[in-house]
Amino acid sequence: MRHIGPSRVVALFAAAALAIVATAFSSSASTFKSTAKAAATSSLTISNESGTTWTCGFNPFNATVNSLSFGTIYEELTFVNVLKSGAATPWLASSYAWGNGNKTLTFAIRSGVKWSDGQPFSAKDVVFTFKLLKKYPALDLNAVWSVLSSVSQVGSNKVVFTFSTSAVPYFYYIADQTPIVPEHIWASIKNPVVYNDATPVGTGPYTMAKCSPEDIEYLKNAHYWQPGLPKIDEVYYPSFTSNEPANELLATGGAQWGSQFIPSIQNYYLSKSKNYHIWFPPVANVSIFINLTNPVLSQLPVREAMAYAVDRPKVSELGEYGYEPASNQTDIVEPTFTNWYDSSASKTYDGYTYDPAKAISILKKAGYKEKNGVFQTPKGPLSFTIDNIGGYSDWVASVSVIETELSAVGISITPDNLAANVFFANLYTGKYQLAYNSETGGPSPYYELRQLLYSKNSAPIGTAAATNWERYSNPKTDALIEQYGATTNPMTQKSIVDQLEQVMLSDVPVIPMTEEVDWYQYDTATIGGWATPADPFAQPAAYNIPDIGVMLLHLYPKS
Amino acid sequence: MRFILRRTGFFLFTMWAAVTVNFVIPRLMPGNPALAMIARYKGHINGQALKALELLFGVKAHVNIVSEYFTYLDNIIHGRFGTSYTFFPESVSHEVLQAIPWTLGLVGVTTILAFILGTLIGLVSAWRRGGLLDSMLPPIFVITSAFPYFWIALLCVWLFGIKLNWLPEFGGYAYQSTPGWQWSFISDVLVHSILPATTILVTSIGGWILTMRNNVISVLGEDYVRMARAKGLKPWTVMWGYAGRNAILPNLTGFAMSLGFVVSGAILVEFVFNYPGVGWMLLDAVSNEDYPLMQALFLLITLAVLTAVLLADIATALLDARTRDLA
């Protein structure tokens, strides 16, 4: 009887393994590597790492997935361009007007628009959407009902919003940041808060054709209301659970539109093809938040000294690879909002440009004495912890530069790198001394300044505050902020922002360091019409909503 | 019979303890899921959304923890694991069931393969001590097992995926593929699993080889092996039936334990290769303070390990008469 010896068993096994692998390779020829498809129809692949696989839910009120449907499938009433200080483009509403001392806002709803299932779109759907937000506050992500008292239809095509308090800046949240959903579908949904919306019906340029946990495929909406658009037939949106594969897909040309943070971008991306471009428009500020209820930090000379002691361009270069421009103390983001910058006010403080000698002289003039390299004040030594999010490696690097520079003027800083949830729990409840974070901003500097300075946004120590984490409170500043909220006059708005800049300069409630940017990479080899610094028609990152829709409508295939 | 009853009783008690610890630990973490979501979307979610999000996730200020514990136990028994915060509004069981096949497939199959190959190589190396196989394979694999896993994984990603462009280095399948039972998809999955599977094999096989080899060497000195040889049985038969069968017993418990740990998903593997399994899902759940998902996954791991240990005990009892007599 012949035995199958051990060597033969191993040989048989190896042969079987090779056979399986060989057939797998041969039959899946070109598709086993995730690369761009060469197709007769034009297509675009987006590279934006979101950290999870897709759930194939498209509810536009669900903050985890709204970037997948708002802009592409669902649309807004009016498009507001942050990069052009709030320039408005009519969208689902053909026009709008303020009335009654800026207490009512009337939209004329566009006619001839259809939902992707063929039903006609009308003012009824707009009223329904906003009433839905009122009925289910969990959907009201921008808290529009904190300023509205009612919404109703007037005539066949007009919708009137009545405000309970002056809130002209909320136009952005109502007109641009609220997706309009169809009444004929959503009226019968029992609980829209947990509604998955797996087959979304919208007015937008794309429909959702296929979805798997790894990829979403959008196809152009043949009945879209803007004639001849969109020009790109298919859009692919793969999911990534970590940054590296997303960056790699961009570098190899598998994706044409990226919204990624890529370290050493020259080496890794730009050098790979002359068609690769980048642009990082700044939109808000990353700042050192100072807990103003802390007795030592409540002393103004301390804060002024800190503002002079840090070399912001150096923080930008070493911490952010130079991608994020240095901020200025007025909190005005340049070049996006340069028109608003009050340079004369800033000049009286030398723009708080890096001057360690001045910082030391301010501390000495306040009567503080240095002991063992750290200044002592009557309320305590200048020795603080600065909370930071450990997972954001660029912020960790920035803070270590700040630490070195502050210690050179006798202020000792200890970075405390925390897990994100712990960081935010501390920040929101005010359990910190210094913290490194950013606000979200909006289509004019007012939005960020209001988030920073409006005391009614804040909350006492121990209660969570959504913004104004430094607990700044000044009734004169509050009055200014409310005054802005009541006007649509650009001259009044500019003068109020100037005064708010003055608050930033004289009170130093936070110290802006670098400007937070939108991450944007694009490949011009096969597709044209991209947003550029010369033509900033929308915010260019794929996670900007609803700007993603505006960008996609601008793109066209190069033949 | 008594043996099985005792073991099952112990199993149930350990399960209860694990379930209770599972309840307590996520609640000791600071923050809440609403804050975790705002953190996750660095700057893209308006701060004013905080209240809306807290409503969404049912974050309550004051909770009666005792009643919550009993509700939790009741839900566990009925298999209701709730809605995930990360994958809102999908249910936890839906998401876990989606991810489990990938982990069981990749890590499960590779663990079994590593065990089988490792024991085979260990057995043959010990039998032909000093031979060509023995001088090459065990040392090589012990060295590769000593390397940190992530280092080998990243090296493979760079070399085979990026530099040589031979193999796909991320994902469970190419994102353009349509999931289904057609061969094009299955082959796509197989090809995507080559790199992760190879890295797991290469780093874990050394342990099996070494332990098996040592077991066999000690068994070779036993009387019954000498007796079998003296009887004139073929070397192959002695190696398989006498030496191998006895040497493998200690390894069985280790194998059962490692099978139990398969479900914890080899987080590093799935993170480096972007593999859509349970390990990466656990990492995500913890970063997002997704209590329901975390609890379900911890429970799954505990259940898997405890069951594996129970089965290993029973298997050892069945295969080794000596333990049966003592019980």
Task: Estimate the helix proportion of chain B, in percent.
Answer: over 70%
| Counted beta strands of chain A | 23
Number of helices of chain B: 14
Subunit arrangement of the protein: heterodimer
Radius of gyration of chain B (CA) equals 24 Å
Main pleated sheet of chain B: none
Number of helical elements of chain A: 16
The chain pair with the largest interface is:
A-B, 78 and 68 residues
Mean pLDDT of chain B: 84
CATH architectural group of the largest domain in chain B: Orthogonal Bundle
Ends distance of chain B: 10 Å
Class per helix and strand makeup of chain A? alpha+beta
Instruction: Please provide the count of β strands of chain B.
Output: 0
Helix content of chain A: 25-40%
Major beta sheet summary of chain A: 7 strands, mixed
Instruction: Identify the overall geometry of chain A.
Output: globular
Whole-number count of domains of chain B: 2
User: What do we call the CATH topology of the largest domain in chain B?
Assistant: MetI-like fold
Order of helices and strands of chain B: HHHHHHHHHHHHHH
| End-to-end gap of chain A | 71 Å
**What integer is the average pLDDT of chain A?**
90
